[in-house]
Amino acid sequence: MTLSKQPVLLVHGGAWAIPYDAVDAHQHGVRKAAEAGWRVLEQGGTALDAVEEAIAVMEDDDTFDAGRGSFLNEDGKVQLDALIMEGSTLQAGGVGCVERLRNPIRAARKVLNDSPHIYFVGEGAERFAEEHGIALCANEDLILERELVRWKDAKKQKFLTVPPEFAGPPMDSHDTVGAVALDAHGNISAGTSTGGTLNKAAGRIGDSSLIGCGCYADNLSAAVSTTGWGEPMMKLVLSKWAADRVEMGEAPQQVAQAAIDRLQSRLKGHGGIILLDSQGRIGLAHNTPRMAWAWRRPGENADGVQSPRG
Predict the structure, then answer these.
(1) Which are the catalytic amino acids?
(2) What is the pLDDT of residues 99-130, one digit of tens each?
(3) CATH architecture of 3-304
(4) Model-level pTM greater than 0.70?
(5) Domain range annotation of the chain
C-alpha cells in the first residue's frame, strides 16, 4: 500500500478561548470523534463516511457548538449550518439555518447523495431531510441551560468586551467542529458543522457551510475545514485559497499557517484551520488561545487542545 493509500483522519472541535475547565471535555470529545471516524477508515470505508461519522459524534456532544448545546442566536434559538464535500467528484451537500435537526451533517450528506442541488436552508432543508428519512426534533431539545445563561450574559454585555486586537465577535464564542479524511482509495473529503456565533442575527449563515469558505475538498489539492469568526473567512474564501496553495505545491502545514496569518493580517480575523492532502500530509494552525484537535494514521494517533508544534 502506497503512502497516498494509507488512511488519515484529522478533526477539530473549535478554535477559541477554550476555558481551562473545559479543556478535558474538548480533548475527550475530539478523541471520541476521531475514534469514530477512524473505525470507518480501518474497515475500508470512504473518507466521506468517516467525516460524517466523526462530525456526528461532535454534534451529539454537548461540549461543542454544533447540534445540541450550540450557541443561541439573538432570538434565543439554536440555528445550525453544515456542509460535507467529496474530493474526487467535487460533490457537496449543505444545510443552513436549520432549527429542528439534531445532526445537520447527516442532512447535508443526504443533500450530497440524493439531490441535484447543493444547498438547502431553513424549512426547505428540514422538509428535505424529513422526506429522506431524518427525524425532526423540537428546537427546545437542542437548547441547554448553560447556553441560555451564556446568551443572557451576551445580551447584557452586547459584546463590549471584544479584545482590541480583533474587530469582531469575542474569541469566547466559537466552537465549530470539522473533519477531513483520506481513505484507502486515495480520495479526500471534508465537513464542517456549527451553531454559529453567540447571539448572531437570526438567519445569519457563516463560513462553515459555504463551499470554499469554511469547507472544501478536491483530490487535486486538499480537504479543508475552518473554525472561528466566519465573516472574514467568507471575504477571503479561505478554504479554497488554502487548497489552491497546496495544489501549487506548498506543504499543508505551511499553507495552514499562511492562511491564518492572512486572516489576521488582512482582516484582523481569528480562528483555526485543518488541511489534508491526497498524500496524507496534514496542516493545522490557529491564532486563538486554544484549538481542539485530534488525528489518526496507521499506527499513530494524537489529540490536544493546542496546535502541535514543530
Answers:
(1) 176
(2) 999 999 999 999 999 999 999 999 999 999 99
(3) 4-Layer Sandwich (3.60)
(4) yes
(5) 3-304
